[in-house]
Amino acid sequence: MLSLGVRELAAAMRVVAKGDLGRYYSRGTSETDKFEQGLRATLDVRHALAVNSGTSALICALVGAGIGPGDEVLVPAYTWVSTAAAPLAVGAVPVLVEIDESLTMDPIDLERKITPHTKAIIPVHMINLVCDMDAIMKVAVKHDLVVIEDACQAMGLKYRGRRAGSIGHSGVFSFNQHKNIKSGEGGAIVTNDDRTFARAAMYHDVGHYERKDQFVSDEPIFVGMNFRMPELSAAILRPQLKRLDRQLARRRERRRFLIDELAASGRTGYAISPHHDPAEAAGLALLFDDPQEAKAFGDIKGARRLIDTGRHVYTNWQSILAKRPVHPLLDPYAWAHRPIDYPADACPATLDILARSCTVELAPELPTPAFRVATRSMRA
Ligand SMILES: Cc1ncc(COP(=O)(O)O)c(C=O)c1O
Fold first, then answer.
1. Is 158 part of any domain?
2. Fewest beta carbons less than 10 Å away: which of 158, 180, 223, 354?
3. What mean pLDDT comes out for the span 322-332?
4. DSSP-assigned beta bridge partners for residue 56
5. Can you tell me the distance from the alpha carbon of 129 to that of 124, in angstroms, rounded to the nearest whole number?
6. How far is Cα 128 from Cα 296, in angstroms, rounded to an integer?
């Protein structure tokens, strides 16, 4: 089954035929409005704002929460570089937190990294595996911190009955080419907080955002950027959103199948990476005893060793490690209350876990990973 098909084609043609390519030019309800409606219903949240990338969604969420110069934002050392870059875009600094064997933020190290200047936590639900949100929210409440869930890699996943991204103060999603639903580029922020939404909405539209029928805000207008989602993107995302739960069910089915196949293969020296809501797991990672075994497994088609996934690993975030701002006078590190550094060994537990871990591809549209050993066939 291909993830994009005739419904997306028809949706794109509808937009082109109508000729309204931006939401504000739409005669009638725009595709972007309808996509946001779908997001609100699917994720059971009060507000949803479609934007043009996951990175812009992160920036909007930080702006929404009022994070800025002098603030420290806790981010995991294993995530796409955008999670760490976004705080810098609003003048704050990222502080690295170890992951644990679930491949998500370690709540124990999280609490260790809190200082009087910490304002926000960005837990990241990596590769369709969810964070330990109960533990993270407990730390956040105890220290009065904002939680922005980065659910870019986990659209639709559930954690104890709630959708990833709907548990913290806000949640962000990416719809780039590699995500559960995709439009090439695209993103969204969701929240139940009116002020966060009003600020994010204003920022994403050069500070002139007005949608008075949908929210009331006395927030004064401030300067923003253009992070608006094009109508074509919203149109092709809508049918995918409708299919999302079915697609996730197929990923879970494929996960169970591959776990059985691995067990049947007689391979030893690995464990399935623990999951914080096992029944909902739609990602699969293996944790090997020995990094060399992980390396060999990662060479198999359909598998990848996590330490080899480029800018998902903090040691490959060159611009951040070098603390190189966009302009010498726009330097968030100069505004920080204490020196923040990122030595190569800042997060040794993360490096050890990533060197021993491999992810296994579960996307239904891709061929079954080549380590399959049994003769049973599998539904695509
Ligand atoms: C965890 C995570 N956060 C943020 C992003 C940024 O999303 P985008 O590429 O849409 O800007 C990504 C994208 O790969 C991601 O995987």
1. yes
2. 223
3. 96
4. none
5. 9
6. 23
pTM greater than the 0.90 cutoff = yes
Residue with structure tokens 């293969």? Answer: 265
**How many whole angstroms from 260 Cα to the centroid of ligand 1?**
31
Residue 195 has pLDDT above 80, yes or no: yes
In a domain, 303, yes or no: no
pLDDT digit string, tens, across residues 81-108: 999 999 999 999 999 999 999 999 999 9
User: Which tokens in the block code for residue 251?
Assistant: 């990923």
For residue 184, CA distances in Å to 52, 181, 229 come to: 10, 10, 12
Ligand 1 contact, 181 CB (< 6 A):
no
Query: How far does residue 372's CA lie from ligand 1's centre (Å)?
Result: 30
Q: Is 174 in the pocket of ligand 1 (CB under 6 A)?
A: yes
Q: What's the CATH code of the domain at 151?
A: 3.40.640.10
Q: Which residues contact 351 (CB under 8 A, 6 or more apart)?
A: 307, 313, 315, 345
Residue 49, domain extent: 7-240
Q: Is 52 in the pocket of ligand 1 (CB under 6 A)?
A: no
